[in-house]
From TrEMBL:
<keyword id="KW-0804">Transcription</keyword>
<keyword id="KW-0812">Transmembrane</keyword>
<dbReference type="Pfam" id="PF12833">
    <property type="entry name" value="HTH_18"/>
</dbReference>
<dbReference type="GO" id="GO:0043565">
    <property type="term" value="F:sequence-specific DNA binding"/>
</dbReference>
<keyword id="KW-0805">Transcription regulation</keyword>
<protein>
    <submittedName>
        <fullName>Helix-turn-helix transcriptional regulator</fullName>
    </submittedName>
</protein>
<dbReference type="InterPro" id="IPR009057">
    <property type="entry name" value="Homeodomain-like_sf"/>
</dbReference>
<feature type="transmembrane region" description="Helical">
    <location>
        <begin position="184"/>
        <end position="206"/>
    </location>
</feature>
<feature type="transmembrane region" description="Helical">
    <location>
        <begin position="6"/>
        <end position="25"/>
    </location>
</feature>
<feature type="transmembrane region" description="Helical">
    <location>
        <begin position="138"/>
        <end position="163"/>
    </location>
</feature>
<keyword id="KW-0472">Membrane</keyword>
<feature type="transmembrane region" description="Helical">
    <location>
        <begin position="212"/>
        <end position="234"/>
    </location>
</feature>
<dbReference type="GO" id="GO:0003700">
    <property type="term" value="F:DNA-binding transcription factor activity"/>
</dbReference>
<keyword id="KW-1133">Transmembrane helix</keyword>
<keyword id="KW-0238">DNA-binding</keyword>
<dbReference type="InterPro" id="IPR018060">
    <property type="entry name" value="HTH_AraC"/>
</dbReference>
<feature type="transmembrane region" description="Helical">
    <location>
        <begin position="37"/>
        <end position="55"/>
    </location>
</feature>
Amino acid sequence: MAFSFLDVLSAITLFLLIFLAAVLITSKKSTTSSRILGTFLLLNALNLSGGLLFISDVVLQRPWLAFWTNTLPLLFGPLLWIYTNDILYRDFEYDKKIIWHFVPFIISFLLLIIGFHIQPDDRKLEILEMARNSERTSLPVVITTLVFYGHIMIYLGFCWHQILIYRKELYNRYSSMEIYNVRWLMVLLGLFGFVILIALINSLVGFSEQPYIYETSVIGLVIAILFFASSTLYRALTFPHFFKGLPRKAIRYADSTFTPEEIRNVRISLYAAMDEKELFRKAHLSLDDLANHLQTTPRLLSQVLNNELGMTFFEYVNKKRIDLATSMLTDPAKKDKTILEIMYDVGFNSKSSFNTAFKRFTRETPSSYREKMSSTS
């Protein structure tokens, strides 16, 4: 029995999706978020297999196999949204409201059972023939397809919005972003968005009357899913923190009840701690750490930084670090110190973060700044 290129490609893709899903769901170290992602990948595998089954002749002999996976895309968006929130917020609550995210899938699945699966076999074959031929380009089919993809894209937008909110909160709480880096999550969402775009193109091409164009687009879709599965597996193996949740407690001070004297005292204590004791040189200094040292609350300290100084905690600490770095780079007594040594000395533990912050505050790289100041002196 000969296998086509699409058969081999599909088999590899399905294996990767199912293997990774099984690991995420069944591992003893699995968290809630990893099980959600595993379920998401498994549903993608089922959806792909259902699509491949639909364009094969198998469903013509066994019509009861058709359409079971057609409504699964309505689960993709909600699962990604829940996964994103579970990853970002350890205090994310699974309350009864979550079920509302799955209502479109439940309704669509029930309509599918009523409209197809409980019908007699001859009626199933008739519906199947229409779906594969004459009704394939009908307006209701086109609208339904666009609604399904629109549903996923809206949820992807929700996920991106949640990440932006979270990153903003991080800048108010931490002086170093390396251990709270969520770029991998953004890459994951971006890759899946790319898969959805290819899938939409595949569906639109499917409305044409050219079978070979559709077959080519199916191959492109499978390749995109394979790339997504491979990238997800690679990141799961490469980054140990890939499936760990991150801490979050929102800080709000819009309706502040702090007195001017309390704010002034914290500001004075803050200057003493940062200018005299140079606490900013602690690599992973957090808002909570500094608040404990000042014997105040993170909420009050955050208000002082944002409202009184006009900076986030991240900006304030890194400005202090860069001010000290520029001083050390121009100090003749420290001319033998390397830039890397100065970087660690002022509190950075990442060269890229140091260079980015340095350029942001001085508009120059550390090396060019040192050279310019040396030639000037």
